[in-house]
Amino acid sequence: MYIGVIGAGRCDARTFDIAYEVGKLVAQRGAILVCGGLGGVMEAACKGAKSKAGLTLGILPSEDRKQANPYVDVAVPTDLGEARNALVVRAADVLIAVGGEFGTLSEIALALKIGKPVVGIGTWELAKRGRPIEAILVAKDPHEAVERAFQAFLKS
Amino acid sequence: MYIGVIGAGRCDARTFDIAYEVGKLVAQRGAILVCGGLGGVMEAACKGAKSKAGLTLGILPSEDRKQANPYVDVAVPTDLGEARNALVVRAADVLIAVGGEFGTLSEIALALKIGKPVVGIGTWELAKRGRPIEAILVAKDPHEAVERAFQAFLKS
Amino acid sequence: MYIGVIGAGRCDARTFDIAYEVGKLVAQRGAILVCGGLGGVMEAACKGAKSKAGLTLGILPSEDRKQANPYVDVAVPTDLGEARNALVVRAADVLIAVGGEFGTLSEIALALKIGKPVVGIGTWELAKRGRPIEAILVAKDPHEAVERAFQAFLKS
Amino acid sequence: MYIGVIGAGRCDARTFDIAYEVGKLVAQRGAILVCGGLGGVMEAACKGAKSKAGLTLGILPSEDRKQANPYVDVAVPTDLGEARNALVVRAADVLIAVGGEFGTLSEIALALKIGKPVVGIGTWELAKRGRPIEAILVAKDPHEAVERAFQAFLKS
Questions:
Q1: H or E stretch including C126?
Q2: Which of A142, C14, D18, D56 has the highest CB neighbour count under 10 A?
Q3: Cβ distance A156 to A137 under 8 Å?
């Protein structure tokens, strides 16, 4: 099983801690961690996964493998720019969004478009014409997020 | 100038009329209309553009050019699936979202990520932690949408 | 019908003349000319097509539309780097290679892989284990090249 | 270091043995093996790498991870079709082509285009206007191939 952890390339300490914990739990439960390979949430999740000897995959926007954070085991430079977001989504069975900016939103949307479950902690809230669209599975903490991700995968 | 009109592949009659009008105004003002090439909002916008002899470009998800709606002048089959959304965004200078589902949301997010202006009519509303994120330029009708799109392009 | 004309971004005067003539004949016969949008063979073919009021499509490797040569009507910036070669191939029904370097060779190979006809003038010669692989339809001049391209399209 | 092993999805027993040996040597020397993730040469190389506990990365053309051969550790479904060939090239520091059909040729050409070394065993021979183009580093057996790949990487 491959769990994608998505979020911004820069983040505050609290968000970093959450993403670290998510990565740790993903690895503990034996899943491969997929991410965009850069800093911030991506680095935190990879660092957490490595603390439990998990395997981490980073799909990079540039052609330069050195852009990968130090906790990426398998770094895939794509030179596709933000178009690589579609590959992060494709490579994951389920996604967990931690915070996140517009890049993360694009990944959430692509995942929902192709029917992949998305769990969110403190991430985007979606609405149309004043009505909330509750397509993201909201979790209050890393444990709930990883638990919901595994449940969603088993159901899909 | 290239204006992207984005929205769902199926839509109700009201949304179709709005997208048609947007396409017509885009062509009247001399811009090339870019879209995902399929039905619904994309077809409406192309049909509107052709009513004023505009030029229409459709960037298709499949490898089959026949998927293009009949109002597409230049049909580009990509076989990239939803990853082609990044190409619609790249190919446009400004985007106008009319309604839209998750695919449209991914295009809005990618555009905002790379700093391209997005105008919206009846489209997604974004928020984080209970606070609205007002990154989309809201328009109430096709005239205002196209006007705001041209203004945003000239400023960018 | 969409004919792709592929070749290097820089070329000598003789190759330029051949590509110009190919583009002219493509337009004369009513096909849309697809290319990578840059200089050299691509510019020559577009210039030839415009001399007969043809429509030209340039699929660019960068995100900058200004990279397109001045004879491109519809310029599609992709920001995919050389990965855009696959899109040039997908967008064309048949390809005509005029001379060409490694980028052109990648397009020839991708086209042959997915079963699209490739006509060649002064382009790559392929062999394996000392035996020529005659997959490219060889033409001695622009007229023969465009004629063979149309024939191949009608048969495919 | 990441070594790409490229070749056809189906191959004869002799080619399989060569690719197996290449994969084994790549893993023995501590490099990560990158490939297109499918059968034939790709499967042989992965199987060889796993015989020495190497790490294998498969970048798949489809969206279905199950297409990966059983010796792929990290399977990346892309849904990009043959456009994923550019990603195999990007993900590798050096490529070793074993035999190969048109897909392999496209990878060889893309690698040469962006300046990545390509070593070949029994693979394509290139020529233009009757003159061989000796851009591929020819090796007579797996040992020489892997040796030349490492040398080329160290020089690059």
A1: strand C124-128
A2: D56
A3: no
Q: What is the pLDDT of residues C103-120, one digit of tens each?
A: 999 999 999 999 999 999
Token pair, residue B121, equals: 């009519």
| D122/C112 CB distance under 8 A | no
Residues in chain D, how many?
Answer: 156
Torsion of CA D80, A155, A25, A105, to 10 degrees: 50
Residue of A nearest to C83 (CA): A80
Task: Determine the distance in angstroms separating the CA of B78 from the nearest CA of chain D, rounded to an integer.
Answer: 9
Residue B46's identity, in one-letter code, is C
- What's the DSSP call for residue D36? -
What confidence tens digit (pLDDT) does each residue in B125-145 have?
999 988 999 999 999 999 999
- Find chain B residues with C-beta within 8 A of C65's C-beta: 2
Cα nearest neighbour of B80 on chain D: D80
Indicate yes or no: pTM above 0.90. yes
**Percentage helix, strand, coil for chain A under 3-state DSSP, each rounded to 5:** 45, 25, 35
- Amino acid at site D38: L
Structure token digits, residue A35: 């991410």
Chain D residues near residue B83 by CB distance under 8 angstroms: 79-80
Distance CA D40, CA A25 (A): 36
Degrees (nearest 5) of the Cα angle B92, B94, B100?
A: 90
Residues of B in contact with C78 (CB under 8 A): 87, 90-91
- As a whole number of angstroms, the distance between CA B23 and CA B142 comes to 9
H helix count then E strand count, chain C: 5, 9
Q: Which residues of C touch B78 (CB under 8 A)?
A: 87, 90-91
With H, G, I as helix, E, B as strand and everything else as coil, classify residue D4: strand
Residue B62 above 90 pLDDT?
yes
Q: How far apart are the first and last CA of chain C?
A: 12
List chain C residues with CB under 8 Å of B87.
76, 78, 87
**D119 φ, ψ to 5°?**
-105, 140
Cα–Cα distance measured from residue D114 to residue C77, given in angstroms and rounded to the nearest whole number: 19
As a CATH number, domain A2-155 is 3.40.50.450
H-helix or E-strand spanning residue B6: strand B2-6
Alpha helix ranges (H) inside chain B: 13-28, 40-51, 85-91, 102-113, 142-155
CA distance linking residue C63 with residue A80, whole number of Å: 11
> Could you tell me the strand order of the sheet in which A124-128 lies?
A131-132, A124-128, B124-128, B131-132
Residue range C45-58: mean pLDDT, rounded? 98
Which residue of chain B comes nearest to C56, CA vs CA?
A: B74
DSSP H helices, D3-39, are 13-28
Binary contact (D81, B83; C-beta < 8 A):
no
Q: What is the pLDDT of residue D108?
A: 98
pLDDT at A156: 79
Q: Is the pLDDT of residue B156 over 90?
A: no
Counting beta carbons within 10 angstroms of the beta carbon of residue A69, is it exposed (0 to 12), middle (13 to 18) or buried (19 or more)?
A: buried
User: Residue ranges per domain, chain D?
Assistant: 2-155
Mutation target for B interface from D63, D80, D82, D87: give the one with most B CBs within 10 A.
D80
